[in-house]
TrEMBL record:
Residue stretches making up the Peptidase M20 dimerisation domain: 210-294
Lineage top rank: taxon: Bacteria
Native source organism of the sequence: Geojedonia litorea
Pfam families: M20_dimer, Peptidase_M20
Protein name as it appears in the record: Aminoacyl-histidine dipeptidase
CDD domains (alphabetical): M20_pepD
InterPro entries: Peptidase_M20, Peptidase_M20_dimer, Peptidase_M20C
Keyword terms of this UniProt record: Hydrolase
Length: 486
C-alpha cells in the first residue's frame, strides 16, 4: 500500500514521508522517532545532537559556492495527532500509518495521516540526504511535542542554533506565507462528586454522538463545525428538564487541539417514561442534524437502551455541570480588528469526562492577543468555578507577532510571484506555530512559515494534495537557492 506513495513525485520527499510514517510518533511518546532521526543524521555523517528535552538538531554544511549565504534553520515537529474513526482498529503505539492514493490526495485508512507535520520533516530529511540540491548551511531543527504543549520549542536553549533565517514548514495552504500565529492556553476544570446508588424503577440508556468532521481547533474553529461535547450536553440538559434524566458517565472528545467528533453518555430515566423519552430524544436529534446538515451531513445521534448502571451523579453536581457546559464559550470569541477574516480569539471545549466520581473538562483557548486570551480564559474559569470546579491554567505559549518588513518575507513573496504568476497570500493564522516560542530565545532570527495543501488536519479525514506537494517542493528548492548573502 505505502509502496504506491513512494512512487509519487518528488520521490525524495515522499520516500522520507513513508519512512517516517512507519515509525509510531504520538506526542509525549517520541522516543522511537527521536532515535530514528538520530540514526538518520549519523548515517549521513552529519553533526547530530539531541538536546535535553528531546529535540533533534542536524547540521549540514553549505554546498560548494553557497558558503557565503546566511545559515538557514529548517524546522518541523516530529510528533503527530493520533485520531481514528470509532470503527477503525489501530494501535498508534505499535503500528505505522497505512496510506493510500485517492485521486490527487494521499490519505490514511481510518486514521490521521501525519502530514501535519510529517511532510515538513520529510522535506528537511530529503534536503539533508541530497547530493545535488544547492543550499546554504542548514541547521535542521526537529522539535517534539508540538501538538500537546509545544514543550520541545519551549525547552530549546539559546545558543544551540546560529542560523539567521528560520523556515517553519508547518503551514497548510500552498498559496499562503505565514508571518504570525495565535498563542494558546489550556484551561482544565475538575471536581469530584458523590456517586449515588441507583434508585428503583430506573432504566439505562446509551446516547452516542458521532460522525462529525472534527478538525483543527485553530484553523477550523470558524467553520461552524459541530462540537460533540456541546451537542451531547444539549441532549442531556433537555433530558433532565423534561424527564429527570440522571447521568452515570460521559466520555466525549479527545485531544485539546482537535474539535471533538464523538461523545458517549450512559444515563438513566424512569422506566415509565422510556418510550416517550426515546421519542423526544430522537426528535431533538433530528432538529440538531437539520441545524448542522450543511457542515455535518454525516452526524449521527443514537439513543438506545443499555444495562442500567449501579451509580449516578449526585443531582446538584449534575445540574451545575450541564449548566456550566451550556454556558461555557465554544468557538470564535472575537475576530481580529486588524487583519481581515482572521480569528483573534477562540475556545475549544475539547474533552468532557465524567466517571467514578470525577469530572474533567479540558479546553484550549487561543488568541493572537495575550490580553484577549486571558480574558476568555477567565470567563471560562468563572463559569466552571460557579459550579464548584477547580480550574487550572497550563501550557501557556505566546503568539508570533507579524513582521511585515521581514527580509525573508520579501524573498519568498518575490519567488512565489515569479514561479506562480500571482501574489502569495501573506497572512497570520489562528493555529499555534512554534515560531513565537522559538523567537523568545532567538529574537533576532528572521522567521517565515509555509507548506503544502493539507486538509482535515487532526482528524481521520486528514489528507495531503499530491500536486500541491510538488508545487511546494519546487518552492523550497528555489528559496534555498535564493538565500541572501551574509
Amino acid at each position: 500500500m505505502n509502496s504506491d506513495i513512494r512512487q509519487l513525485q518528488p520521490t525524495a520527499l515522499w520516500n522520507k514521508f513513508a519512512d517516517l510514517n512507519a515509525v509510531p510518533r504520538p506526542s509525549k511518546k517520541e522516543e522511537r522517532v527521536i532515535q530514528f532521526m538520530k540514526d538518520f543524521g549519523a548515517r549521513l555523517g552529519l553533526d547530530t545532537q539531541v538536546d535535553k528535552v528531546g529535540n533533534v538538531i542536524i547540521k549540514k554544511p553549505a554546498t560548494p559556492g553557497m558558503e557565503d549565504r546566511k545559515t538557514v534553520v529548517m524546522q518541523s515537529h516530529l510528533d503527530m495527532v493520533h485520531q481514528k474513526n470509532n470503527d477503525t482498529t489501530f494501535d498508534f503505539d505499535t503500528q505505522g500509518i497505512e496510506m493510500f492514493i485517492d485521486g490527487d490526495w494521499v490519505k490514511a485508512k481510518g486514521t490521521t495521516l501525519g502530514a501535519d507535520n510529517g511532510l515538513g520533516v520529510a522535506t528537511i530529511m530529503a534536503i539533508l540526504e541530497s547530493t545535488d540540491i544547492p543550499h546554504p548551511a542548514i541547521e535542521a531543527l526537529f522539535t517534539i511535542d508540538e501538538e500537546t504543549g509545544m514543550t520541545g520549542a519551549k525547552g530549546l536553549e539559546a545558543g544551540l542554533l546560529s542560523g539567521e533565517i528560520l523556515l517553519n514548514l508547518d503551514t497548510e495552504e500552498d498559496d499562503e506565507i505565514g508571518v504570525g500565529c495565535a498563542g494558546g492556553l489550556d484551561v482544565t476544570a475538575t471536581r469530584s462528586y458523590k456517586e449515588e446508588e441507583m434508585p428503583e424503577f430506573k432504566t439505562g440508556f446509551e446516547i452516542i454522538v458521532k460522525g462529525l468532521n472534527g478538525g483543527h481547533s485553530g484553523m477550523d474553529i470558524h467553520k461552524g463545525l459541530g462540537n460533540a461535547n456541546k451537542i451531547m450536553n444539549r441532549l442531556l440538559f433537555d433530558g433532565f428538564e423534561n424527564y429527570g434524566l440522571r447521568i452515570a458517565e460521559i466520555d466525549g472528545g479527545s485531544l485539546r487541539n482537535a474539535i471533538p467528533r464523538e461523545s458517549k453518555a450512559i444515563v438513566v430515566i424512569d422506566e415509565i417514561h422510556s418510550e416517550s423519552f426515546r421519542s423526544e430524544m430522537n426528535d431533538l436529534a433530528n432538529v440538531i442534524k437539520t441545524e448542522l446538515k450543511t457542515m455535518e451531513p454525516k452526524l449521527e445521534i443514537l439513543v438506545s437502551p443499555t444495562k442500567t448502571p449501579k451509580y449516578i451523579m449526585e443531582l446538584g453536581v449534575q445540574e451545575g455541570l450541564t449548566r456550566a457546559i451550556y454556558a461555557a464559550h465554544n468557538g470564535v470569541y472575537r475576530m481580529s480588528a486588524d487583519i481581515p477574516d482572521l480569528v483573534e480569539t477562540s475556545n475549544n471545549i475539547a474533552k468532557v469526562v465524567v466517571k467514578n466520581g470525577e469530572i474533567k473538562i479540558a479546553c484550549l483557548t487561543r488568541s493572537s492577543v495575550e490580553t484577549s486570551k486571558k480574558d476568555l480564559a477567565n470567563a471560562l474559569r468563572a463559569t466552571f468555578e460557579l459550579t464548584g470546579c477547580e480550574v487550572e491554567f497550563s501550557g501557556d505559549y505566546p503568539g508570533w507577532t507579524p513582521n511585515m518588513e521581514s527580509p525573508i518575507l520579501k524573498v519568498l513573496t518575490q519567488i512565489y510571484k515569479e514561479h506562480n504568476g500571482q501574489e502569495a497570500h501573506v497572512a497570520a493564522c489562528h493555529a499555534g506555530l512554534e515560531c513565537g516560542i522559538l523567537g523568545t530565545n532567538y529574537p533576532s532570527m528572521d522567521m517565515i512559515s509555509f507548506g503544502p495543501n493539507i486538509r482535515g488536519a487532526h482528524s481521520p479525514d486528514e489528507r495531503a494534495q499530491i500536486s500541491s506537494v510538488q508545487k511546494y517542493w519546487e518552492f523550497v528548492l528555489k528559496i534555498l537557492k535564493a538565500t541572501p548573502k551574509r
